[in-house]
User: Fold this.
Amino acid sequence: MEREKLEKFEFESEVKQLLHILVYSLYKNKEIFLRELISNAVDALNKIKFEILINKDIEDKDEALRIDISLNRTQNKLIIEDTGIGMTRDELIKNLGTIAHSGTSNFLKKLSESKEEEKIDFIGKFGVGFYSSFMVAKEIHVYTKSFKKGSKAFLWRSKGDADYTIEETIKKIRGTRIELLLKKDEKEFLEKFTIKHTILKHSKFIPFPIYVEKDKIETSEAIWTQPKSTLKKEDYYGFYKFLGNTQEEPETYIHLSSDAPVQFNAIFFVPKTSFESAGFFKTEPGVDLYSKKILIQKGCKDIIPEYLRFVKGVIDSEDIPINISRETIQNNIKIDKIKKHSLKKIFQQLTKIKEKDREKYLNIWKNFAKNLKEGIAYDFENREKISDLLLFHSSKKSKKDFIDLKEYLDRAGEKQKEIFYVTGLDIESIEKNPALEAFRKKDIEVLYLNDPLDEIVIDHLREYKGKIFKMAESADIKIDKEKDGGKDENYLKDNENLILYLKTIYGERIADVKISKRLVDSPCILSHPNDGPSVQMEKIMKMVNKDYKFSKKIFEINPENKLIKNMVRIHKATPDSPELKAISLQLLDNMMLREGIIDNIDTIIPRIQDIMLQACKNIK
Ligand code: ADP
Assistant:
């Protein structure tokens, strides 16, 4: 039979960009290429271990599962070989010619802008490790043969520039052999000592035998099955680094062992940083499901839900059958029990950190607040537990500080039936919201929601420990001013007249005009007629649907304010004063500008200029 000829392919443009970054901007920590190749070999071995158990038709079924590293000093070659699943021709093209990851172009942009020390970690976490070998190799040859019965072997070759070739080859045993033709300056990777040292540093937890020039390296296997008492913090940290392809230590970890009602061991980690919150790429679910040390699903969303995708770790249960399918995982009672117990422990740990080590928790919050807020929306069952973890800015704290809901209730006391909040884009503008005046006067705390997600959170929660959330603008908060009886009838009448006047001038633009019981200093405020969405939320709706119409607000005036007093005076003397009309219209537009819901900007500027002209006339 004739062998397939050599074929030439061009790398996908994103791969070319990545290779360029790898080769021309990374000079330190190049050794991590080995960690990446070993991690790929481990993946391939994990997959075959699983296939062997469920599938009869496998090439070289009895071949030992192992990784071999050999060093050829005369040819400057480092060779790493595994007996994993191998790749077919099509898989070679897909896996080693493209980047199968959503958000790749954004990732590459951020990568090229990041500092050198960070780059390596980004690459490991994003998962494009194979290509990092081009940091040390001037040419790479990949010999591979798939586990599928009757597969041919193929050779993939590239110099890491624009293209690669594929041709048929001969390879006796299933798996992959990667030969790196090292660059002149990278000869240290031909030293057995360097290789052994690098493996122990980054890849100590390889669950398969690994040999360097026939010497077996002592690795630690499945630490999650070992008793907690025999493990030190360093063991967990090392395992995390191996698991996450990172040099970073975790923020915290949890080790669970349970025998009843379901047997399982698990280790979970919360990372110290988040690429997702830094806008890099969406984190892939990070908890892998094992059964008796056999990996049955990477990133198992059915146990650790999508919103907790930042949690890394492993779950291993003897009670889960190896051949469980995706569909049955979802409906398996044991899986459900593992899930309940695991989530309970994760939330407990986070709550404990929040209570005992605020600084640590603030870092977790900075990185994963978005995930927890997502959890409020999607995880009805754990909503209450997650709500204990939420933090908010508040009127009784400095701008940078946060409080939790428990703290709010403790301060509010039994009598207060609501949790008040105000929304806005940033703390500075929230603090200027006139709706807060009454709350300040009465010394009532208000939560400042400056993240658009907060309102979605409040919408789903509706209440916390029996107290309902209430928007400051729609809250019926009154300031106890001296009794209205103290004012004479004319005063009330004059104000009423101004109100009638404003109603005719504003017409359809507002729902009503009223005397405000909540303002202290400001002349006026727009309040919400009912518990409808906040302006922030309405703006989001408007973004989604151009035709969305903002709900009509109530225009409240403060008769104690100087400007309003003057307007009352002018109205009484000259009800048809054109200046009064301009001022009145401008006052409403000012409020709308404040809320960012203005639609008649073109009429505002000439009007302000007219008002300015009038003001000039009064200046000598
Ligand atoms: P990642 O491993 O994070 O997916 P890589 O760029 O390192 O990214 O590898 C791309 C893909 O190539 C892997 O997902 C895998 O499918 C395939 N691959 C790499 N190395 C091997 C190997 N030793 N055996 C089988 N497949 C491999």
In short: The domain at 390-474 is CATH 3.40.50.11260 (Rossmann fold).
